[in-house]
Amino acid sequence: MNKKLIAASVLVASLAVAVPMVFAQTTTTTPAITTSTTLTTKIACVGAAVNTRETAVDAGLTAYTTALNSAYSARATALQAAYTNTTLSAVHAAVKAAWATFNASYKSAHMTWVGVKSSSWTTFAAAVKACKAPAGTSDTVNYTSPL
Q: Residue 70: CB partners within 8 Å, gap ≥ 6?
């Protein structure tokens, strides 16, 4: 009789341990769907941040190249006008002024471009951090500055 009582107790104890494990496994599979959905949302968030960054960089680069084109055209016009002077001192002064204006325009355009590039990457980094996406989701691993 004692053996039957002990065997029955062991069986009940085994079921008491096994049944919660089965339910625990069922509960664990449900968050996997939520995690997948959350991961998709996080990836989309990073994608939106990349799009915003690239749009800002594109606009900045367009402004930069426009400013450079303008600086080169102004320099060409100023140099052309410089060589219409009749004295060497006037030519020298006009050429010097043309190059000084060009250099100032070039530096200004470059500094604006660097600022736009820097701010768009800083904004991007903050946006990606807010997305809380897993490491490696962003394309920053591939980034090397061409300028």
A: 105
128-132-137-140 Cα dihedral, nearest 10 degrees: 30
* 57, two tokens: 């960089």
Joined together, the tokens standing for residue 92 give 């020298």
* 93 membership: H or E segment, kind and range: helix 88-131
Positive or negative, the CA dihedral 84, 89, 94, 100 is positive
Taking only the tens place, the pLDDT of each residue in 106-146 is 999 999 999 999 999 999 999 999 998 888 787 776 666 65
What is the CB-side half-sphere exposure of residue 40 using CA atoms within 13 A?
6
Nearest residue to 55 (alpha-carbon basis) of 107, 119, 108, 111:
119
Domain-by-domain residue ranges, the chain?
A: 36-133
